[in-house]
Amino acid sequence: MAKIVGQIRSSDYLERSGMWWIRSRSMQKQNNVCKNTVNSLRLDAVGLAVLAALAVSGCTTYQPSYAPTVMRNKITVTESVERLELYVGQAGLHLSSRDENAVAAFLSQYASSGQGPLYINVPSSGATSQGVEQAQSIIQSYLGRMGLNGASMQAGQYKVEEGAAAPVIVSYRRLRTVPIDCSQGASLTHTSNNQPYGNFGCAQTANLAALIDNPMQLLAPYGFDNAYAARRMTVIDKYIAGEVTASAKPEGQEVSATEGAR
Predict the structure, then answer these.
(1) Is residue 142 part of a domain?
(2) Among candidates 251, 227, 196, 211, which has minimal Cα distance to 64?
(3) Considering the chain, what is the average pLDDT of its residues?
(4) What is the pLDDT of residue 227?
(5) Are strands 168-177 and 114-123 parallel, antiparallel or unpaired?
């Protein structure tokens, strides 16, 4: 015979299951609230870190990413000695047309870029004294043709061994720019640091150095001449009289906008 321990009513079961569902939903809501709180705290921390980084970056000063190219590729100016040798024979100095052109070109270069006096060094032996005098006379004649009669000339002697060639050496000093070698550069594929390669701007500087005719321009500026006193007095007189001090423009230089558009 079966023994009945207890009887559960359907209403009691529904009530208990409902309480369990309510309790489980409540616990789920609490878990979601905790998760949302943790996520919000994380977002707040990230936001504070971003704001702090922006605040710190706002206090920094501007710094160029790299130094100017003029600091990395400098033009070097050096002094060189240009020389011309005139070989004198026992019968004197005889210059061919080619030699005359060489002397003219040498002295023309001295007139344009020479620094200091023109040096004429002759051998210490007097075996070719006649040719030495002829060389000096020829050089002075060429300088006179170029309008350099007042050019400073310094004569000197040098020792020569017996039987050796003893030319007359004409020389002068000049400034020149040193050629820049741009072939030695950094790798063009190394761009991880977002910086220009090491010899960036080298080609431009090398071309500029080759184009400069007078390197003295890199060492000191040209001096200013005195103002033209007659023109200054003309401007002052017109200013006192209340007249226009500017120079008069020729009629052909005045063109209106409508005429220029035609």
Answers:
(1) yes
(2) 196
(3) 73
(4) 80
(5) antiparallel
Q: Which residue has the tokens 């321990």?
A: 5
Of 157, 167, 66, 82, nearest in space to 116 by CA: 82
Helix (H) or strand (E) holding 230: helix 229-241
Total number of domains in the chain: 1
Is 160 a member of any domain?
Answer: yes
Q: Domain of 208?
A: 66-181+198-247
Q: Say what the pLDDT of residue 139 is.
A: 83
Sole residue written with tokens 């005139």: 86
Per-residue pLDDT reduced to its tens digit, 243-257:
988 887 777 666 666
Q: Is residue 24 part of a domain?
A: no
Tokens found for residue 161: 């061994």
Which pLDDT value is given to residue 94? 75
Tokens of 122: 């002759």
* Domain assignment of residue 61, yes or no: no
pLDDT tens-digit profile of 189-229?
Answer: 777 777 777 777 888 888 988 888 888 888 887 778 888 88
Q: Which three-class secondary structure state does DSSP give residue 3?
A: coil
Q: CA 72 → CA 78, 139, 141, 187, 218, distances in Å? A: 18, 44, 47, 17, 16
Closest to 99 in 3D by CA, of 112, 111, 89: 89
pTM: 0.53
